[in-house]
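User: Study the fold:
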Amino acid sequence: MKNIALVLALILFSSVAIGQKVNYSGEWKLNESKSELGYDFSMAPTSVSVKHTKKTLDLKSVNVWDGQEIVSESHLTLNGKETENMGFGESVTKSTAVVDKGTKTITIVTDGSSEGVGDWTSTQVMSMKDGNLVIEFEAASDMGEMAETYVFDKQ
C-alpha cells in the first residue's frame, strides 16, 4: 500500500511541476559575468523591467550609450499578431511575440529602421534558467550581424 501511495504522490508532483507556467515579470539587472557579450560592441541593456500576463508582455529596457541612459518601452501581445512601438528617435518598430509552451520560451521578432543603420531585424528568445532571465539576442542589418546572450539577475 505504501508503494502505491508513493507512486501516486510522484505522479501528482510530476503533473504539478509540468503544468507550471513561467512568468517573466520582475525587475532584472544584467549579470555581465554570466552573459556572452560582443567583444567590441554590445547591445545589452543594463536592466530590464518585465510585466508578463497571459496575453501580453510589457518590456522596459535601459541601455547606456556614451554615458547616457536610453529607455525603451514595448507593449507586445503574445498571440503572434504584429504590434507597433516607438523605436529610436521618431522611428516605429514592428514586433511579433509568440509563446512556446513546450520550451516555455517567448520569441520576439522585431523589424525597424534607424538612421545610420538602415533596416534591421532582431530576434530575442526569452527563457528562465536557474532563476535567471536569459535573453538570446540576434540582430542583422546592412552593417552586419551579431549574436549575444544576456543573463539577468532578479533585483
User: Anything to note?
Assistant: Confidence is low (pLDDT under 50) at residues 1-19.
